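Students often ask why we bother encoding 3D structure as a string. The short answer is that it lets us treat folding as translation between two languages. Here is a chain of 370 residues written in the first language.
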Amino acid sequence: MIHPRRRQVLLAMAAGALLLAGTPLAAEPPANVPVIEIREAADSITRALSGEIKAREEIGLSFPRGGRILRIDVREGDRVEKGQELARLESVQQEQALHEAESEVEAARADLRRAEEEFQRQEALLARGATTRIRRDEAERRYHIAQANMERASANLTRARKFYEDTFLRAAASGVITRRLADPGEVVAGARPVLMLASGEALDAVFDAPEALPVFLGSDFVVRLALIDRPAVRFTGHLREISPLVDPGKGTVEVKVGVDGRPEGVHYGDAVRGTVTLPMPAHVAIPATALVAAGEGAAVWKVMALEDAPELGEAVLQPVKIARHEDGRIILETGLADGDLIVAAGAQLMYPGRLVRLAGSGATAKGAGE
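And here it is in the second language, the structure alphabet:
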């Protein structure tokens, strides 16, 4: 049996609950949260990449034949002239073969001189009848043999000189050494680059760009460039080349930006930051704080104005589709239109049907997102 006083308390609580249930406006006051108006607008995005300054025309210098490097006479940054000796291989065998070939040529030249003199003498004697035809023909035969020996010795000397010359690495053009790819004492194969030579004055800023980024680029895009270690050194460039191949390891494509002119203080190998501003089609941007997670994806709290109370609105959960995320804001693909009102922050206070005070709201989604 319930005590009479306790029964009175329970009855009072039940009556209060019924009263609150019947008057929702009295249950909770309208939420004072920032509300913004959606405005679709064209926009632009800025992308920055880090890269390296490289010579536009770079030549790999290598020895025609392999061997052990005896010395390298230049360093990175040295300016060289066409034909200048830059490095040398060990060449003991080549020098020995060259000396032997030179000696062979001297001996063959002496034999040829003697054979020629004997042939001429026999020709003169035969004309006077003082020798036989057999001796004259034998002198001619020896003369032709000496000529053949001389040609063979000369060919051997040419080949020996070529092998010896191949132990020297000379500049193919005038320019600046940009890289050393080997060191003295190292054994290198033939045709393997030992030095890299920049043969012109033109510069490129080379970047590894995300695969999708070059789709938005064109040759008319101006790329703002600045050295990473010296940000005050600023200059510009234009898109020059996009690699058709994607690096399988990085998932990037190589983009070359031609540097405009020859900026003061910019050198090969400098780290550079390139910045581009890309125009984007009209879209809706909302603050990141407006987004909430719904059962099937992303959503926002849309505010529906009340006809009988213009200063109030009712919260409705509106699903949206995200195009991309940016710093501090989200670009939507679908879900909202011009003139829609949404809750910009304080989504944790919202639930379907919650009243929101509209007084004082007037910012647009574009303004809030910037």
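Translate back mentally: The radius of gyration is 44 Å. Keep this in mind for the problem set.
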